[in-house]
Write a structure and sequence with these properties.
The structure holds 2 protein chains of 2 kinds. By secondary structure, chain A is an alpha/beta fold. Chain A is built from 6 helices and 11 strands. Chain B is an alpha+beta fold. Chain B folds into 3 domains: 114 residues, Butyryl-Coa Dehydrogenase, subunit A, domain 1 (Orthogonal Bundle), CATH 1.10.540; 107 residues, Beta Barrel (Butyryl-CoA Dehydrogenase, subunit A, domain 2); 147 residues, Butyryl-CoA Dehydrogenase, subunit A, domain 3, CATH 1.20.140. In chain B, helix 5 runs antiparallel to helix 6 and helix 7 packs antiparallel against helix 11. The chains are: A alpha/beta, B alpha+beta.
């Protein structure tokens, strides 16, 4: 089973984000970047599948030079090969444009399965995985918590309100994964050294047969920080009066009751 | 001159930091109280290659360099210092001498298991009457046909309770350093037993025990290195070990600094955060500066070792400065926390207790100064050189 996994380098969700001066992005200096949390689960699922059934795992990412860090992390976990789509035109793409570029790169790799994280933790869009499936003309299943691979088809579980949906898709297919699907491994030191030695294939848009970058149809107007959390309020007085005030506050102000 | 970590070093750092933050840090206080650690930690560290960082992959190790080893130990110690001691003993004091001095058969039998974390090692050098003066050790090894018969008592053995493989130094010849040989013993060898288990000031989660050798019979093939070359094995081993202790000390110092910074920003007195008072700021500034200085000494010693050059002096300087920085920084952290620094609900009293051992084991601060002074006074150290090339 040959598997392609789409990955992205994103800011560590543990560190606070500062908005850039122009309001159209985040200040990258001082930020720690990591492999997107959900993509880690995608890489892990691919590696487990390979360990069970054989085959290979190829990573693909689109982004500037520093995006290569996500590929190195995935290679250190145990992936076999990596493709880095690098082109100045990538900067102007929206999610659909990125998906089209990724799809063009994936098309050139013979594979039975494409795995993506269900979303990336930086912009929370959850567009790229499904759009890659559309551009490739493949069936898809999203936010999957369990994946079973059979002969030419896959059974996928997804959690919906109050139930587990069981889907069957024909392979090849695009599957986006949810956190519960597995427990990702930590890269090993030999894995890190192998990752260092693995040559990463670089592709420009022209290499992928894309002459003009697809124009963005969605424009980011600006970013604003979330409102500061208000300090808590302490209710004081006789217990009966405090309970009364609390119930009233929960009902009228917090609208929880 | 360049001061950046290579890409693979950064990946080692983020990987180990992630593991330590997720798995180790939440258990640190409980490990300190119970005096034990989850044994599955050794398996997990072994799977990542961290139990044999600089041992080649063909012998089950991580195949990386001493700089990586420093990163690993510092990150583990930042979360919990006792596990860093456990790990540093296995890496520096067991894997290293078997890799450097062992026969091919010894490497296949012992090194691969130790490097993979399937077995744990310990190092038996110190005796009740031979501490800093290790060359005066009294444990004897007498040849008896195809065997060596060992008699004596070793003390202060880190990992002594759990260890499967023991590096033991014993006297096979006359007095002094030239009469000493190194051996590989195994748990379960006849005549080998664990004696008194020590109760310590700090690094509680790691065991420290007495190892008793009473007519302990080892096959002749367990001699490690040449007969009579044991003291050279011990000293070569300690050079690398001292770099590991520097890393452990810096991890503890960093924990003290990071905890103090978080507390100083949060704790309010006289209507403002105590971080706004200069008395606090100066402590923080000095802690950060000394940690950076210690880290540069450590990386330089590691780098010289990775060049395959002699690094006895640099390892001693790094170990001396880093361990005194750890003790000093932990003291400052306790002071910044005030009364809260003295009680067990907060982590800094643990850093304070854990820091002290780094000034003592693998050569006390006094022994490090002795090594450094001998080198400088003996004219072996070019006081103008900063890359270690001035050393004879």
């Amino acid at each position: 089973m040959n598997i392609v996994v789409c990955v992205k380098r994103v800011p560590d969700t543990e560190v606070p984000i500062r908005i850039r001066g122009d309001g159209r992005g985040v200040e990258e200096s001082g930020l720690n970047f990591v492999l997107n949390f959900y993509d880690e689960h995608g890489v892990e699922e691919a590696l487990r599948t390979k360990e069970r059934l054989g085959g290979s795992v190829t990573l693909v990412t689109a982004g500037p030079a520093r995006a290569v860090e996500a590929l190195r992390t995935g290679l250190a976990m145990g992936a076999d090969a990596a493709i880095h789509i690098q082109d100045p035109a990538l900067a102007s793409l929206d999610h659909i444009g990125t998906a089209r570029v990724l799809a063009a790169a994936i098309k050139a790799v013979p594979c039975d399965l494409v795995l993506c994280g269900k979303l990336s933790t930086d912009d929370n869009a959850a567009i790229v995985g499904p759009a890659v499936a559309e551009f490739l003309g493949l069936p898809q299943a999203t936010a999957i918590t369990k994946l079973e691979l059979g002969d030419g088809k896959a059974t996928a579980h997804r959690e919906v309100e109050g139930a587990v949906e069981v889907l069957e898709v024909k392979l090849p297919a695009v599957i986006t994964v949810e956190r519960g699907i597995n427990e990702p491994r930590y890269p090993s030191l030999p894995g890190i050294m192998r990752a260092k030695r693995t040559a990463i294939t670089t592709r420009t848009l022209a290499d992928l047969g894309i002459s003009a970058p697809p124009p963005a149809r969605v424009e980011l107007l600006g970013l604003t920080p979330p409102p500061k959390r208000q300090a808590g309020r302490r209710l004081e007085g006789e217990p009966a009066a405090v309970v009364h005030d609390l119930v009233r506050a929960l009902h009228e102000e917090a609208k929880l009751l | 001159m360049e001061f950046t970590l290579r890409e693979e070093h950064r990946l080692v750092q983020s990987t180990v930091r992630e593991w330590a933050t997720a798995r180790l840090l939440p258990r640190a206080a409980e490990m300190d109280r119970s005096g034990t650690y989850p044994r599955e930690f050794i398996r997990e560290l072994g799977e990542m290659g961290l139990t044999g960082v600089f041992i080649p992959e063909e012998y089950g190790g991580g195949g990386m360099d001493t700089v990586s080893y420093c990163i690993v130990i510092e990150e583990i110690a930042r979360a919990e210092a006792a596990l860093a001691a456990v790990l540093s003993v296995n890496n520096s004091l067991d894997c290293f001498p078997i890799f450097a001095f062992g026969t091919e058969a010894q490497k296949r039998t012992y090194l691969t298991e130790l490097a993979r974390g399937r077995k744990l090692g310990c190092y038996c050098l110190t005796e009740p009457t031979a501490g800093s003066d290790a060359a005066s050790l009294r444990t004897t090894a007498r040849r008896d046909g195809d065997h060596w018969v060992l008699n004596g008592t070793k003390i202060f053995v880190t990992n002594g309770v759990e260890a499967d493989v023991l590096i033991v130094y014993a006297r096979t010849g006359g007095d002094g350093a030239r009469g000493i040989s190194a051996f590989i013993a195994e748990r379960g060898d006849p005549g080998l037993s664990v004696g008194k288990i020590e109760r310590k000031l700090g690094i509680h989660a790691s065991s420290t025990a007495e190892i008793v050798l009473q007519d302990c019979r080892l096959p002749a093939a367990r001699l490690l290195g040449e007969e009579g070359a044991g003291f050279a094995v011990a000293m070569a081993t300690l050079d690398g070990g001292r770099i590991g202790i520097a890393a452990q000390a810096l991890g503890i110092a960093r924990a003290a600094l990071e905890d103090a910074v978080a507390y100083a920003k949060d704790r309010r007195q006289f209507g403002r955060a105590i971080a706004e008072f200069q008395a606090t700021q100066w402590k923080i500034a000095d802690m950060a500066t000394r940690i950076q200085a210690g880290r540069l000494l450590m990386y330089r010693a590691a780098w010289i070792r990775d060049q395959g050059r002699r690094h006895t002096l640099e390892a001693s300087m790094a170990k001396l400065f880093a361990s005194e920085t750890a003790m000093w920084a932990a003291t400052q952290a306790v002071q910044i926390f005030g009364g809260y620094g003295y009680i067990q609900d907060y982590p800094v009293e643990r850093h304070f207790r854990d820091a002290k051992i780094t000034e003592i084991y693998e050569g006390t601060s006094e022994v490090q100064r002795l090594v450094i002074a001998r080198s400088v006074l003996g004219g072996h150290h070019d006081t103008t050189a900063s890359d270690g090339r001035g050393q004879a």
